[in-house]
Amino acid sequence: MTDPPSAEVTDPRKKDPPRKEADTARRIRARGLAQGLAPPDIAREIHDQCAPIFGTSQIKAQRLAHGIALSDVVAQVRALYELEGKPRPKLGETLLSAYESGYKRPGPEYLHYLCGVYRVEPADLGLQGPCVCGNRHDRPRAGVQESGPREPDSVIGPRTVVTGGSEWAAKFERTSGPRLSRVHYRAEGPASGTDGDEEDIVLRRTLLQLLAGAGVVLDGQILGAVDGIRRRMDDTLVNASVSPTMLDQWEETVQGYGQQYMSTPPLRLLCDVLLDFSEVRRMCEQRQPIELQERLCRIAAKLSGLSGVIMIDLGDHRLSRSFFRTARTAADETGDRALRAWVSVRESLVPMYYGDPREALHLARRAQDLAGRVPSVAGAMAPIVEARALGMLVKRGRNEATPSAKRAIARGQVVFSQLGKDQVKDTAFGYTERQLAFHTGDTYTNLGDHGNAEETLRKALTLYPATEELDRTLIWLDRASCRLQEGEPEEALRTAKETILAVSAAHRTDIVIHRARQLASAVVAQYGDIRAAREFRDALAGPATAGITRKQA
Question: What is the value of pTM for the model shown?
Answer without folding.
Answer: 0.57
